[in-house]
Amino acid sequence: MSKVNKNKLLMNLMKGRTFFVLIVLIAFFSIKSPAFLSISSIITIIKHVALYGIIGIGMTYVIITGGIDLSVGAIVGLVGMIAGGLIVDGLPIHILGITMYFNVPAIIIISIILGGLIGWINGTIITKFNVAPFIATLGMMNIARGLAMLRTNGATYSNIAGEPALGNTGFNSLGSSINGIPIVVFLFLIIAVIAILILKYTPLGWHIFSVGGNIKASELSGIKVKRVMTMVYIFSGICAAIVGLITTAQLTAANPSSGDGWEMNAISAVVLGGTSMSGGVGTIGGTIVGAFVIGVINDGMIMIGVSEFWQKVIKGGIIILAVIIDQYQARLHARMALMQVSENGN
Length: 346
Known about the structure:
two-stranded antiparallel ribbon, globular, mainly alpha
């Protein structure tokens, strides 16, 4: 077997590494905990996978462009607090001496707009002021988390059922199920399909890959790079806002700490799924498999009694290992390209 063929075989094996890891993890946790494959456990895992997956889809767009969004977890908490506040306290208008209460569809729209607005601010800071994505979104993470805490001085909105007289009931139904399948799963599938179609079949999708592959070449080819980069952060913010709404509805309470650390879950899912941290390469399908890996690891470790502190250590190690493999895969791909050119030249 020639070196090119050997490298091709190795590359194909590496592409399927995440799915293989998923199978191994399921087998491992099934052996360690017989309850792991129970119906209730499977439903719980799928709910968590859907939440990580939705954030991960937005993160995939961002990372393909060569960026990163550390603010998504904080957006989850802030959106939940804003939605909870609108249900419980309404919107006081002190000048008129009245308080406005919104119905659930209006609250959903306001929350999604808020997520998109935060994403737009992230994108604007990055593109207009040339701030590194890591720094810009790290700052926004702290701002959003701080605002969530300030909303109630760190307290939780424990009753978000609403009141019939105010016309704001029904929010908790977002966290319910249809024929035993959680609503978040349907949302996850819809968002995933839309994201895949955009990446594969629209000019925007091509522009996203182009910007991540080579910004200078994209600018020279007429692509509005700043607009594309801003749009992916808006999309990421919207995805995080949707997760904030669903999480709040599932908990039937708004907690300012919701989503804490979920940016790491999303990044892990994206990188495990084969999206390159260098930009220009990535798939939504890979992110979905990566989200399953993270969901299985998180819930599996809880079920077998792994310490929360060790969970953080393990997940941190997973991110580092995934990036190392990603870099190796990139070098292997470059080496294969050179070998192919050399063979063709001969």
